[in-house]
Amino acid sequence: MRLPDPFTPNLKVDLLPEINQSPHVMSDFTSPLTALNLKAELDAYLKHRSPHSFINGLRNRLLLASPQQDDVSKYNMAAINSLVLYVGVQAIAQAQAKGTQPSAPLTPSAPMDIFQHLTTELDSEGRYLLLSAIANQLRYPNSHTHYFSCVLLYLFAESTEEIIQEQITRVLIERLIVNRPHPYGLLITFIELIRNQRYNFWEHTNFIRCAPEIERLFSSVAKSIQSSMMRT
Predict the structure, then answer these.
(1) HEC letters along 214-230
(2) Helix (H, G, I), strand (E, B) or coil at 182
(3) Which residues contact 19 (CB under 8 A, 6 or more apart)?
(4) 3-class DSSP state of 212
(5) Rounded distance between C-alpha atoms, residue 12 and residue 143, angstroms
(6) Tens-of-pLDDT digits for all 232 residues of the chain?
């Protein structure tokens, strides 16, 4: 598979034929939801977009039932990862059944209700785990990568809380400052975020320029991307 350079100016990712292809998921990623008796209720909400009591109580059901002293988090991380992937898979399937692209455009829907509600209602720790689970799906071009890229960008654009936009930026940037190669979907998402004026990324000075070293980091990443785009 030879892919177009992600640094190509005005690259139309939604025109790549690969984004209509779903990756093979070999693991039983629904088992954490089944273990929490969440799957049946989740399926019902995704189908009917009700009852609202389901998403109102979802945050607490993602907490560990009996947290131990050596637990890394108070949240059930397996359940969060499972929830994110399962909701995305179902959203893509629903869109394909209607003959539309799952991200064209992202509109209020049962899947986005879940993502937006959790993004708003979770505390910083839980939100970071949720956004990380989404960012983990930004891989090679496929339907999952494209959908979750659009979800992150949609959450950034629609949020009225800068802490949410800051954490979205964090989960992307901490994956970009490691040694290359970087996942294709990660690059596409971050390039779109910093270049598309819809997101007003560079106006978020509260976290972009919160400290000299952070400002230098963003400046370095932006210059690296700009340099790569000029070479294409």
Answers:
(1) HHHHHHHHHHHHHHHHH
(2) coil
(3) 13, 101, 141, 142, 143, 145, 146
(4) helix
(5) 15
(6) 566 666 666 666 666 667 777 888 878 899 999 999 999 999 999 999 999 999 999 999 999 988 777 778 999 999 999 999 999 999 998 888 877 766 555 778 899 999 999 999 999 999 999 999 999 999 988 999 999 999 999 999 999 999 999 999 999 988 888 777 888 889 889 988 988 889 998 888 888 877 787 778 777 777 776 666 555 5
Residue found under tokens 């919160």: 210
Specify the DSSP element, H or E, that contains 122: none
Q: What is the 3-state secondary structure (H, E, C) of 103-120?
A: CCCCCCCHHHHHHHHHHH
Name residue, tokens 């629904």.
30
- Sequence-ordered list of residues with C-beta below 8 angstroms from that of 83, at least 6 positions apart, any chain: 32, 33, 38, 42, 62, 114, 133
The pTM is what? 0.88
